[in-house]
Amino acid sequence: MSVTSATSAKRGAYAKTPARKAQIVEAAASVFSTRGYNGGSLREIASQLDVGLTSLVHHFPSKTDLLEAVLVYADEKYIGEFDMIAHDSGMRAAVLDLVERNFGHPELLRLLAVLGTECSSPGYPGNQWFVDRYSRLREEYRARFEHDQAVGRIPARRDPAVLATMLIGLWDGVQLQWLIDPGVDMVATIGAFFDEIEASR
């Protein structure tokens, strides 16, 4: 084999790596969303992809490594264009847009709900990721509510930090109810929250 051929072969192998890792993460997301982190095994994930366990471990040496990749994947899919809409049109528009778009991705919502419950115990794999995620969301939402106050969308008397925490609690709660019973109206419920905080502007 020539040097050029050998280099091309290596480049081809490297090029396949991101695609294979993405396939593994998607398969793991499917398994974890139905069986949870404890119930889902690396062997089952490998079986879904029709690859050997050794191949999977080559990309993700431990189950914890794979869990972290799955959480990042779910969070990135979940967010979308939220920040841009929040800045341009306000938190109400951004939140309700994301709620509407997420109707098409119940598996991701279920994944975050299942893993969020499992990872609630300190020291559990993924716990710190959720701690950091909620801390980041509270800060981002607080800043967005402050921006809404600055442009007159919500009253200045409202505490933006409290609003951020309230929104996250409401959103997670009504989302879980919707996963259990699709008849629950998430849009109307969250819309009512914004009706309340925007009152008396």
From TrEMBL:
<keyword id="KW-0804">Transcription</keyword>
<feature type="domain" description="HTH tetR-type">
    <location>
        <begin position="18"/>
        <end position="78"/>
    </location>
</feature>
<protein>
    <submittedName>
        <fullName>TetR family transcriptional regulator</fullName>
    </submittedName>
</protein>
<keyword id="KW-0238">DNA-binding</keyword>
<dbReference type="GO" id="GO:0003677">
    <property type="term" value="F:DNA binding"/>
</dbReference>
<dbReference type="InterPro" id="IPR001647">
    <property type="entry name" value="HTH_TetR"/>
</dbReference>
<dbReference type="InterPro" id="IPR036271">
    <property type="entry name" value="Tet_transcr_reg_TetR-rel_C_sf"/>
</dbReference>
<dbReference type="Pfam" id="PF00440">
    <property type="entry name" value="TetR_N"/>
</dbReference>
<keyword id="KW-0805">Transcription regulation</keyword>
<feature type="DNA-binding region" description="H-T-H motif">
    <location>
        <begin position="41"/>
        <end position="60"/>
    </location>
</feature>
<dbReference type="InterPro" id="IPR009057">
    <property type="entry name" value="Homeodomain-like_sf"/>
</dbReference>
